[in-house]
Amino acid sequence: MSLLELRHIQKGFSGIPVLKNVSLDIEPGEVHVLLGENGAGKSTLIKIMTGAYSKDEGEIYWENQRIEIQSPVDAMNLGIATIYQELNLIPQLSVYENIFLGREIRKGPPFRFLDHQEMKRKAKEYLQRLGQDISVEELVCNLGIGKQQLVEIAKAFTINAKMIILDEPTSSLSASEAAQLLETIMELRKQGIAIVYISHRLEELKQIGDRITILRDGAKIATLPVKETSTDEMIQYMVGRNLDQKYPKEQFQLGAEGFRVEGICLQGSEKEVSFAAYQGQILGIAGLVGAGRTEIARGIFGVDQVKSGKVYVEGKEVRIQSPQDAIAAGLAFITEDRKAEGLILDQTLEFNMTIASLKNFRKGSLLQLEQLTQIAKEYITELQVKPGDVQKHARKLSGGNQQKVVIAKWLSTHAKVFIFDEPTRGIDVGAKVEVYRLLNTLVKNGAIVIVISSELPEILGICDRILVMHEGQITADILRDHATQEGIMKAATGGM
Ligand SMILES: Nc1ncnc2c1ncn2[C@@H]1O[C@H](COP(=O)(O)OP(=O)(O)OP(=O)(O)O)[C@@H](O)[C@H]1O
Ligand SMILES: [Mg+2]
């Protein structure tokens, strides 16, 4: 018997079909993976399962009963819990208060006081069921993102979840946090809970998945047993062709020092960071999440104030006290957090892609609008942004396609120094290759390219030189030919 069955689901937005006749069944206790390119319809499909969107056509069955899921409350009452990428925790509350938020346990009448003891006891039990040893009285703000996510999962027990849906849960986790999450998922599976799992990290899917359903352009291509399907087959189903190269690395002549920072020290820190980057070389910055890589980049770019430090572009010192100064000095910073810092969601793609480079489109006091549209169109083609309509609002794009728009916005500035922070987070395998090709093109055109990434295969696959950070400091500076996963991990954990 299947737990949840979707039959012939159709969904469109303003007349454009996004899900086309999708049928799918989830069995109790299985890990069912949804795989597909950016914009294939994965998030839309799960939003139908969780009552966030209503379907246009089709039928839904829960334990063989025909039902409708018209709101998130309906889904919760059935026992469907969802872990979204943005966590819904209140940082100033404790772990147990968060777990029971909105579903507090109260003592019997007459006063109905909150039963803190009982909530603590149960919270502890839930975390133990996840194999976790987190203090239930700890404030959530004191926990790392990986632990916070586990607290979010523990909430699922308060509704007696039979099914837990996770949409790209590991994309903001470090390698060890991700490994822990995968273990937790296997634990839930053992307890008979069905898991619906979305991720662009194919290695993960191999590790935990029972069955995999592949979507392409809103249609279901196949449901397959994971064990009997190779990664290459998955990719082929997903993109409709073979990917000959995951990392299209090109070699360039090593050039001049184009960028240098000296003694950058962040507010509230005693540690200093210095490094130089050269033309012809992609410089990677590896490290665990929380090692201080993003903070240093924000300091360099003038987003956060620094206590001290100097920045040189092409040998000349530049003074940066704000992002405007940084842009004027020829820097571009492609942030990891596209919603908060990268995009204006209620503006068009064209607007978002050209906002950082408007000065290039001025002629006297006039903006050359046609040229602006032209450039936006070029980037849409180059990065395979879908849907490729320059007038579309950024909000309406899938997560991965939004990320591509952020990249385009900075490419159009023709900066001298590009700092990418997790550039391929949430981007599908096919589009990743396009992003890597773009990095190559930037280097070929003489730009300095710095890539912060937590994915070691990516760092090793595309960078020529790798800096490793640990607790706010650079602990290694390794050339590609000498770099190994083990060596980087060792430096990233401080064990040199
Ligand atoms: N609220 C909306 N209004 C209009 N179009 C939308 C809306 N939400 C999603 N879409 C469109 O539906 C399609 C599927 O999007 P969805 O978010 O389901 O993709 P996805 O498979 O989750 O992709 P990703 O891997 O990038 O997260 C996309 O073309 C997207 O632009
Ligand atoms: Mg999505």
Summary tags:
single chain; alpha/beta; Rossmann fold; six-stranded mixed sheet; 17 helices; globular; binds adenosine-5'-triphosphate; binds magnesium ion; ATP hydrolysis activity; sugar transport; nucleotide-binding; P-loop_NTPase
Q: Overview of this structure, please?
A:
The chain has two domains: about 5-240, 3-Layer(aba) Sandwich (Rossmann fold); about 255-490, P-loop containing nucleotide triphosphate hydrolases (Rossmann fold), CATH 3.40.50. It is α/β, with parallel strands linked by helices and about 500 residues long. A six-stranded mixed beta sheet has the order 6-7-8-3-9-10, with helices on both faces. Helix 5 (about 145-160) packs parallel to helix 6. Helix content is about 35%, strand content about 25%. Adenosine-5'-triphosphate binds near residues 36, 386 and 399.
Structure classification = alpha/beta
Rg, please? Answer: 24 Å
The major beta sheet can be summarized as:
6 strands, mixed
**According to CATH, what is the class of the largest domain?**
Alpha Beta
Share in β-strands = 25-35%
Low-confidence stretches: none
Distance separating the two termini: 53 Å
**CATH architecture descriptor text of the largest domain:** 3-Layer(aba) Sandwich
Helix and strand layout, with pairings?
Elements: E1 4-13, E2 16-26, E3 31-36, H1 42-49, E4 57-62, E5 65-67, H2 72-78, E6 80-83, H3 95-99, H4 116-129, H5 145-158, E7 163-167, H6 175-190, E8 194-198, H7 202-208, E9 211-216, E10 219-225, H8 231-239, E11 257-266, E12 272-278, E13 282-287, H9 293-300, E14 306-313, E15 316-318, H10 323-328, E16 331-334, H11 338-342, H12 349-354, E17 362-363, E18 366-367, H13 369-382, H14 399-411, E19 417-421, H15 429-444, E20 448-452, H16 456-462, E21 465-470, E22 473-479, H17 485-492
Parallel strand pairs: 3-8, 3-9, 6-7, 7-8, 13-20, 13-21, 16-19, 19-20
Antiparallel strand pairs: 1-2, 1-4, 4-5, 9-10, 11-12, 11-14, 14-15, 17-18, 21-22
Bound molecules: adenosine-5'-triphosphate (ATP) and magnesium ion (MG).
Adenosine-5'-triphosphate binds near residues 43, 387 and 398.
Pfam family, one: ABC_tran
Organism: Brevibacillus centrosporus
Membrane topology: Peripheral membrane protein
